[in-house]
Amino acid sequence: MNDMELISKVQQDRLNRSFLNEEKRLIGDGGYLAPSAELWNDLLVTASLKKNILLIGPSGSGKTKLADSISAFFQQPIQVVNCSVDLDSEALLGFKTIVKADDQLIIDFIEGPVVKAMKNGHILYIDEINMAKPDTLSILNSVLDYRRMLVNPFTGKTIIAHSDFLVIAAINEGYIGTTPMNEALANRFISFSIPYIQSDMLRELLIGKFPHVSTRLVDSFISFSQDLMKQVQNGLLSDEASSIRSLEDAIELAQFMDPIRAITYAIAEKLRDEMERDLVIQLAKTWM
């Protein structure tokens, strides 16, 4: 092996190590507690079959953590798309840019999450898919159906999805800024309802995440959370009031400040309606 071949091999080894480190970094940490063993098992079966998965549930019910846990279970890197009305094809597929190579300016294509996931066999997680404009999502039609391919409009190249490629999307129905999913798009998914976890499972989650918090405080927050969920069901509070994510934030703050103030900052102040904010504080005072 001559010097140039040796240098080339060293460079390739470095690129391979860099790629493997990046792959490892993109694998989820897990930690989702499913409300039933059947739900978790059915999700894993669906993922194994490489069916597109749609997670339907309120804000803070753990949809993102669930996708993260599927990534951890299969040790499969995950690429994330956070949808909004401003999402465009470049945010999905990538973009062209000018780079300098060998003292020359050349046009290079920087791959976006969809292209990376398809080519490398990653999970593509599309969060709040119903916040994106239908015209933007139409780019993914051929990716999500039996063809599992894409003609990249920026390069003209055809991309055939890796055999491990998997799509998981999440929606929060009725959330401000969202629109009903296009029927043709919805038909490309297997749908799962993701409810909030409650009772013993919620206790297990909170004690596992905050082992130094007193059992008494955890129980108070669980009772408070159950009251919030009842008021959501009664139509007196919006879904985000009973978010498990917000509840976790409140408990974490409550380790260092008065629990009522912690609930005010982490839950009540997020609500737009003054009457809802007042109701949350009243319920908190009942249990804290």
TrEMBL record:
Record-linked Pfam families: AAA_5
Domain AAA+ ATPase: 49-200
Tree of life domain: Bacteria
A GO term for molecular function: ATP hydrolysis activity
SMART domains: AAA
Family membership: Belongs to the CbbQ/NirQ/NorQ/GpvN family.
Name listed for the protein in its UniProt record: MoxR family ATPase
Lineage: Bacteria, Bacillati, Bacillota, Bacilli, Bacillales
